[in-house]
Prior knowledge:
single chain; three-stranded antiparallel β-sheet; mainly alpha; 3 strands; Arc Repressor Mutant, subunit A
Amino acid sequence: MSSSKIPALGYALLGLLRQKPSSGYDLRKIFSSTSMKTYSDSPGAIYPALRRLEKNGLIRGRIEQGTGLRRRQVFRLTSKGLAELRKWITSPVTREDLAHGPGLIMLRFAFSEVAVGTGTSLQLLHSFKAEIESYLQVLRKELHARSLVAPTSARLAFEYGIRGTECFLEWTRYAASIYEKENRKESEP
């Protein structure tokens, strides 16, 4: 299964299973009770996604004894699944990624430390920053060109997008500074 065929829900499942082997029910509870519900909390999506990941060798399910007489299938990431997760997390951020908003980029970052380590998490932040800075230049030029012909509402809506992107840039700087401070503390005697 190539990375282009794994939907966001699939990567969310891989990332969660990297953090902790879980049953489908456990995963559903995470999706339904956290902000991850944007990826799905529907059993009609989660269980088929788990089956696809298992069919492609990215996860492995094993029946385990649950509480009482209940048995449950617990899924774990395979080495192939971990390699796919790492490849997705460390892939360069593109302008297209930014145009779709920070959601998937933040999902990648959220799982980065557990999957690839803090050093790579910091590298990701620097790559986000560079791509966002470049994208903002393009957006500002486009705003200038559109401002000459666009109605006020369209211009303001476009400015909203730019301001959101500027906030994302500010956050990447902040997050990188947190990692850099922690690295300095760890290297002090």
